[in-house]
Known about the structure:
There is one protein chain. The protein is mainly β. It has one domain: Porin. Helices cover 11% and strands 56% of the residues. Strands 1-2-3-4-5-6-7-8 form an 8-stranded antiparallel barrel. The longest helix has 21 residues. It is elongated and about 90 Å long.
Amino acid sequence: MKKLAVIGGLLAMFAMTAAAQEQPPAEQGQTPSDQGQTEETPPVKPKKVYETPKYEISAGYSYRSYYSPNGPAVNEPGNVGMNGWYVSVDRNYKKWIGLVAEVTDTGKNQGLLLGDAHIYTFGAGVQIYPLGHRKLTPFGHFLYGGGYYRDAIAPFQAFSGNTITSLIKAWEGGGGLDLNLKEHWAIRLIEFDVGSGNYFPSSQTYAASAPHRISVGFVYHFGQR
Length: 225
């Protein structure tokens, strides 16, 4: 009986040792009872950080509502819608402020009697990013410079041709919203500007007007501030 008891004890010890060897070791700081309860935690996706570019170049379509003393009909004041383009260059000095320069050309052919009218503007000023650069980047600016008006009227029957020009000081103020797509590219969803520019100071009707401009386009970023 003693021999059987000793043999039984040895078999029990051998079984316990074999079971312990088959069990995977516990991780550091983890008790055996915690094994089998650990679940893999999905990796946290890092939040995208938009760096402030040193330079921004934007170009696209521009529409100008111009209040003409002649308007759409001869000797009748009114709004004239002009289509054209704009180009701007911005140099950022901090994440919220930069210096910008902008050139525009908008025009409309108003027919034989009123001619082909164009308005060119060129201005420079401060551009502010109140929220910095991010996925959606709002901005505001104020530009000061000059405006050039040119209306070329072709000769018609007994009437000789004529070209009316006017060069004045002008300003524009407004803002817009950019959508950043990639590291270097963005879309200018909207830019709205209100400006001055009385190309005919003798016209009292024009002096009370407030021409505005709406633009959309693309933006290219390069360099790091």
